[in-house]
Amino acid sequence: MDFDISEEQEKIVPETKPAGTKESRWKTFNYSVGMFGTSIPINLLKTYAFAYYVDTLGVTAAQWGLIMLIYAFIDAADNPIYGYLSDRTRTRWGRRRPWLVIGTPLLVLCLVLFFSPPAWLSANQLFIYAMLFYILTGTLDSVINANYGALFPELFKTDLSRGQANALRQAFQLVAMIISIALTPIVVEAIGWSATAIIYGILGGAVILYMTFTSHEEHISIDEPKPKIWDSVKTLLTNRKFWVAGVSNAFYSAAMSMVMAGLPLYAKYKLGIGGWKQALLMGLVLVVAIVSVAIWAAFLKRYDLVKVWRWALLSLAISFVPLYFAQGYVMALICASLVGFGFAGVITTMDLIHARVMDEDKAKHNVRREGIISNALGFMNRLNSLFTGGAFLLLKSLYGYESGDVPGSQPDQVALFIIAIFPLIMTLLSYACSYLSDFKVVKSEVADQSLLDA
User: Which domains does the chain possess?
Assistant: First the structure.
């Protein structure tokens, strides 16, 4: 299935200005700011969906775990298809732009509907409603992020330019997380969940569209070979580096998904705080991460990418130990800042590892399939729903926690399990997995690596 809208392709010349020029800086900004837009909707969803539906509306933890498991399997089926269709799209606007333009308003709509359930729904109807719009919102986020991610290795060719662009876009992501995670309790207290989702959705959608219309893809000739679905699947299935990067990222994502989902419960049940104090706790993690991105970016200029990636995973894993033992609000703030440092390191390096996988695939097979690989890596990332879903299902048997209405006798231990024990296990698995491949630079990347070392 192809999307050939026009035989007269609009030729878009790729950016060739040297790094540091005004034009190059605008190119980096225009693309990187897109991470601000993509991060606001999904972080609102992933951080507060559990607290909203389970701890507030009364959906049970077991039902929520089932939603996560179903979502993981649906995502497994649709992600490769989205990437395949995106890579084969040929329009005068490029391969990625049509998907971004169509997907963005749909993402905003589904986000708003998810946080605006009708009051007349019964318990079972509320469960079905939550499942439907969580899956739709998550799926549309997959479409947006896969096409956004596929632009990265195409727009930025060297490890040096990628490192600069990725540091900036991760900074934008962290600013978005301050808004969509740290400030949300205050905003919701003032205007409610539905209005918050509307504002966040419009803000995120507007920035995504700005990025879409200012980031120009390379010209792709109609005659250029298009990826074949079964050949692409076979290639990915036999690509060791793809599996290592994908599975490692899945473990890491499961850890951070639970941390974000658990912060509201940790604040409520362990620390007994809310409002501004809760916002400060969440915000500190992200502010420290913003500052730390520059530190990790400096490490990348001096040390090997894979080595820095492993350091980041290990530092993140270690940070969960003091968080578990923290007593009182002040100690919780200090320990949370350690999580922010490790978190910054992983987000600074992970996308560069993924870009290296795409580069090597293109060098070996001479076919552009950034969309397929980006979607496949996105699917691997979303395998974290299998792990988090299983963790949610364990809450009742381990601690007697069912929902906010029936929290059991140990809700503080539930919070610690979600925010420290489970993330520690997942991050250690991610760290161990990173050693299953050396991710050595392929020949086509050697010149780029020399720029980084300069």
Answer: 23-214+227-438 (1.20.1250.20)
Decide if 171 contacts 292 (C-beta within 8 A): no
User: Which contiguous run of DSSP H or E holds residue 365?
Assistant: helix 329-365
**Three-class SS of residue 400?**
coil
Which residue is it, tokens 């039902």?
A: 63
In this structure, the number of other CB atoms found within 10 A of the CB of residue 17 comes to: 12
pTM for the model stands at 0.72
How would DSSP label each residue in 271-308? I---HHHHHHHHHHHHHHHHHHHHHHHHHHHHS-HHHH
- First-to-last C-alpha distance (Å) of the chain: 45
Which tens digit of pLDDT belongs to each residue from 145-195? 878 887 887 788 777 787 788 888 888 988 998 899 888 988 998 999 999
Whether the per-residue pLDDT at 369 is higher than 80: the answer is no
- Token pair belonging to 37: 């837009």
Tokens, residue 425: 């296990």
Q: What is the largest CA-CA distance in the chain?
A: 67
Nearest Cα residue to 371 out of 136, 206, 379: 379
Which residues have C-beta within 8 Å of that of residue 271, sequence separation ≥ 6?
A: 277, 281, 328, 329, 332
Q: What one-letter code names the amino acid at 367?
A: V
Both tokens of 313, joined, read 């995973």
**Identity of the amino acid at 371:** G
Q: Which two tokens stand for residue 4?
A: 């050939």
CA distance 28 to 165: 6
| Mean residue pLDDT across the chain | 82
Residue with tokens 């997380």: 177
